[in-house]
Amino acid sequence: MNNVLRTCRGFVLFYNRQSIKSVQRGFHSTEPCLDKPPKVDVVSVDSFNNVKEKNKKTFLDMLKVYRMEKYRSGHVEFINKAIKHLDEFGVNEDLETYKKLIQVLPAGKFVPQNYIQSEFMHYPKHQQCIIDLLQKMEDNGVIPDWEVEDMLVKRFGPRGFPVRRYWRMMYWMPKFNNLSPWPIPKPAPNDPYELALLAIKRISSIDIESEVKVYKTKELEESIEDTWIVSGQSPDQKKIVANHPDNIPIYIEGGFRIWLRKQSIIYFILRTEPSPAIKNEEEEDEDDISNFRVPFFDKPIPKKSDKIAKKKTVHEQEDGTIIAVAATGTSSKNSLLSWIRFLEKDGNPRLTHIPILFTSKSPLGNVEPLSELDESKKEVEQSKQKVPIE
């Protein structure tokens, strides 16, 4: 052929050996442009389920690997998936982890250019994703710092919805952080004994004279179990027991559940019936207008009564009088009986003459230790095996 095809700096020249016929602009590449292999992500949204050691180090390593990708995509899906696994990896109360999740979004890409874009939530999926992240922080009691604000402003501008959410959090969360009069360490202890001490101190704080004591059942000869008992009682409650008649029983009610952050403990109360109220015989009927008096011009009629009412203590409520409160290691009836024996020796000798009853008013049902439940199941299985099948 006389025509020759040559490529030079992006131009394709079609010429004849004698004369040039035409010149056309073209593009030359050694790699195929249409048949590109699919891009494989180093860290995908399903990688959180495939991790064996789930802790803070592995979680931050996964975020670091994802951020090192040159052409990464799916920021919103990745952050939403990571938020669901925060509790599983134990980083739901770590501020550094939340900062790393915010840094997954590139800075300067989602900033609105005018007020219309900012008010109409420019890039709504990305903004809602970070708002959910801030909500997760608030649910776990994590207070952000000023560095979080700088990260949000760089990504969504000073009028972005995540920045407004951050401002509301910084106004309210520091106010409520130390507002509780019963401070609890963060995180709360997992030991039931320490939780029982915190719970009984909180319940008994209604009376400043209340004493919280710890008893060991092994010190009692009549005890069957070996456990601890945390009891709370005040001098006023001991006086109520000393003046309690012998023919009126005292009830042990429980267990009731009290929450300390994300941990809970079961406690019991020693309660008696409320004392009868003294009625005033000369009490006026408010609906009687036969002797109507104007309070600004007429002198008030003094009320006369020969009866003297004793001032009630804070432990005497309308539904009953609380005598003591306690939490035990096993929450069983044997431990509660040991608790009564310790109260008899510790300033309540009249409990030996007063009938004490166990009630079934517990919202949790019958409270029994796991060892007793296992033994009862074994007995039932053995009885089934002994019964002949005809």
Automatic annotation (TrEMBL):
Domain ECSIT C-terminal: 234-361
Keywords: Cytoplasm, Immunity, Innate immunity, Mitochondrion, Nucleus, Transit peptide
InterPro entries registered for this protein in UniProt: ECIST_C, ECSIT, ECSIT_N
Pfam families per the UniProt record, alphabetical: ECSIT_C (PF14784), ECSIT_N (PF06239)
Protein source organism: Acyrthosiphon pisum
Family of this protein: Belongs to the ECSIT family.
Comp. bias (Basic and acidic residues): 374-390
Subcellular localization: Cytoplasm; Mitochondrion; Nucleus
Protein name (record): Evolutionarily conserved signaling intermediate in Toll pathway, mitochondrial
Keyword Amino-acid biosynthesis among record annotations: no
